[in-house]
Write a structure and sequence with these properties.
single chain, alpha/beta, L-fuculose-1-phosphate Aldolase, Rossmann fold, seven-stranded mixed β-sheet, seven-stranded parallel β-sheet, 25 helices, 22 strands, about 45% helix, about 15% strand
């Protein structure tokens, strides 16, 4: 365990933030950044830290205060707004209450914040308040959990950590745990650290460095003990290689994603999808392929803090039939169905203890374990599934180490339920109003141009996960970097040449690796050429035919196979053109090949309807740019159009605006809104063309 404290860095950190929040909290933020950067200590919003300080009120009076990390904030990147200040003097009085309900606790926190706009403090706020140290850190170290979650865990902890460390049996997070800790503090035991069995580690000190180094020192001791006492635990026989498992995953991930879809009862939008990510590495495969894999992996979580992310149990798929996709689908469906029944029965058994106002969670598993493949991690978004994946990775690693030392001991069912349905925990899962394309994934071809980038931005704003692809790698990379500033990991860059079947296959595979499957395909890639028929070069025509026709066919083919395998329908939108209906002189190659693509899409709408895939077309007139992003098509053909009409670049855009009935300038976002109309299924429509041209009577199928 590396001690990453740096006096120089600490001073710089404090100097940067003390003007915003004071030196005490600034030092606490530095501790948080060090702890949060180490996944072996905390994961994704887990753990917390606090500092006791003084607050000056409006009367100039000093109030004893405590600043605690807010619920759901990540220690690695927490800043002043990620910590909530409370009246510590009032919180200390709660020590003498006989009980305090969840609702009362939340009300106390809200009514005794120093800033009414502050976020909800951590569920462990009272624990921090009742510990005497100025700086307090609460972590979930892998090494500590490896020891605390064994049958003889308390004995092992004493051997590993020595004197000066208190050990407390498991208590549910909140008031009961805080009171138990306060009683232990009142007993007079000299210590600066406390192990919470099957939960984590708490350390404290009068300085930020002292509290941080107490954490690092104890975790280091635990790691040394484990290294000395753990025997080798090897898989029986030869385990699957990560390369082989990765190939299998590409074939079955859409099947799993389809099985994990939740029915909505809405015929137009029948499925609520999830984002699926794999956990495939040698350690996981060795564990799952071993004869002890199921017994080791199918045990309760390491700490109750993980429950709201992973559920209490993982789903084990016994003897998966990888060679028979139909049988494998049935196996997984049956296993998921049984899991749902078992989960609902578990909730029913404890329904009388369900807190008022807390809703039952969906019954689907969050982690599926498949020997020969790895762990499949499921979430509502790529952020959620990443959290599930990282927790699963650490959980399986710790459980494997425990098996190499002794016997695992997890929480009982009542303790699991109480934590899973704790109101303050559920508040971490609350989201703003749902967006139309949340939990959906889309692939856009030719995305680096004006129209493609406009569509990508619109879909991302509506909650979608968007893979942008383009044959121009540098422009695509620029677009990805630009979009990720606002939309983070919901943006994926995919190198894809629609004229190359292998590239198309790999493009689909890139989406599958990242998100499990595809729901929406926007076929936007295309090429234009200006030439009269009399002098048209056949090779150039064939190049357009290769891109506009064969590229469209290849994408439609890939979509059909993928959507049929996933089994939850899908949406395809072809970005067509007004030239299909009103071709222009010198535009023969473009008009003819786009018309062929348009016709393929119309036929696809007939063939794909049987498995609920809708295929529609959007036919825009000229779109010259999207913000600073120019249209590649118009950069190529614009000079000819300007020369033919004796116009400047500005004059050409004005010409196109004035020729439509509404005198409208057609933008990329207008096209994107038309795409959005189709993929949100506002009407039961397929095989339709929506003109986006401001009204060109000769060019529309009105």
């Amino acid at each position: 365990m590396e001690n990453r404290w740096s006096d120089n860095e600490a001073s710089q950190f404090i100097e940067e933030y003390k003007g915003k929040c004071g030196a005490d909290l600034a030092a606490c933020l530095y501790i948080s950044s060090l702890i949060g950067a180490d996944e072996s200590l905390v994961l994704h919003g887990g753990g917390n830290s606090s500092v006791k300080s003084a607050h000056i009120d409006l009367f100039g009076e000093e109030i004893e205060s405590i600043y605690v990390k807010a619920s759901g904030h990540d220690m690695a990147c927490a800043r002043p707004n990620g910590y909530s200040g409370l009246d510590l003097g009032y919180l200390k009085k709660l020590r003498f209450l006989p009980e305090l309900s969840e609702a009362e606790t939340a009300n106390v926190f809200r009514t005794h914040l120093l800033d009414s706009n502050a976020a909800m403090p951590s569920i462990e706020t009272l624990l921090h308040a009742f510990i005497p140290g100025k700086y307090v850190n609460h972590t979930h170290p892998d090494a500590i959990l490896t020891l605390s979650n064994q049958i003889d865990g308390e004995s092992r902890l004493h051997q590993a950590l020595g004197d000066g460390v208190l050990i407390l049996p498991y208590y549910p997070s909140g008031f009961k745990l805080a009171i138990a800790v306060a009683d232990l503090m009142d007993s007079g035991a000299a210590a600066n650290a406390l192990v919470l069995m099957k939960h984590g580690l708490v350390t404290w000190g009068e300085t930020a460095r002292e509290s941080y180094e107490a954490t690092i020192s104890l975790v280091g001791k635990a790691e040394k003990y484990i290294s000395k006492h753990a025997r080798n635990l090897s898989a029986a026989g030869i385990s699957t290689s990560p390369e082989e498992a990765g190939k299998k995953y590409l074939q079955i991930a859409p099947v799993i994603r389809g099985v994990m879809a939740q029915p909505t009862g809405d015929r137009d939008r029948p499925w609520l999808m999830s984002i699926v990510q794999p956990l495939i590495n040698r350690d996981v495969l060795e564990l799952l392929d071993s004869d002890k894999g199921r017994d080791i992996a199918s045990t309760p979580p390491l700490t109750s803090d993980h429950l709201i992310r992973t559920k209490a149990n993982y789903l084990w798929i016994e003897n998966p039939e990888y060679g028979d996709p139909s049988r494998l689908r049935s196996q997984i469906s049956e296993a998921v169905g049984k899991y749902i029944d078992d989960y609902n029965a578990y909730v029913d058994r404890h329904a009388d203890r369900m807190p008022e106002g807390v809703k039952r969670l969906d019954a689907l598993p969050r982690v599926l374990l498949l020997p020969g493949l790895g762990a499949i991690c499921v979430g509502k978004s790529v952020e959620d599934s990443t959290i599930v994946r990282d927790i699963t990775s650490h959980t399986l690693s710790v459980k494997k180490r425990i098996a190499a030392m002794g016997r695992y001991s997890g929480l009982d069912e009542e303790a699991l339920f109480d934590m899973e349905y704790k109101p303050l925990q559920h508040s971490k899962l609350q989201r703003s109003a749902r967006l139309p394309l949340e939990r959906k994934t889309a692939l856009i071809t030719g995305a680096a141009g004006a129209i493609g980038s406009g569509i990508a931005q619109e879909l991302l704003e509506q909650g979608c996960h968007v893979a942008v692809s383009d044959v121009d790698g540098s422009r695509m990379k620029e677009l990805v970097e630009e979009l990720r500033i606002s939309f983070g990991s919901r943006v994926l860059g995919v190198a894809l040449d629609i004229t190359n079947p292998q590239s198309v296959t790999e493009g689909f595979n890139s989406v599958i690796r990242s998100w499990g499957g595809l729901d929406i395909a926007v076929l936007n890639a295309g090429m234009a050429h200006v030439s009269p028929i009399e002098s048209m070069d056949i090779e150039t025509f064939q190049k357009l035919e290769k891109i506009n026709v064969e590229g469209t066919l290849g994408m439609l083919n890939g979509c059909a196979r993928h959507f049929r395998l996933q089994g939850t329908g899908g949406d395809i939108v072809l970005i067509s053109t007004k030239n299909v209906f009103a071709p222009g002189a010198r535009f023969g190659a473009y008009s003819a090949t786009k018309a062929a693509a348009h016709q393929l899409a119309r036929i696809a709408s007939q063939e794909f309807a049987e498995f609920d895939v809708r295929v529609n077309m959007v036919a825009p007139d000229a779109v010259f740019s999207n913000g600073n992003r120019r249209s590649g098509l118009w950069d190529r053909i614009g000079p000819d159009r300007m020369a033919a009409r004796g116009l400047s670049a500005e004059g050409l855009e004005e010409y196109y605006r004035n020729r439509n009935l509404l005198k409208a300038r057609i933008t990329a976002r207008h096209v994107a809104k038309a795409v959005l109309f189709f993929i949100t299924r506002q009407t039961p429509t397929t095989g339709a063309t929506l003109p986006v041209d401001g009204g060109l009577p000769d060019a529309t199928p009105r």
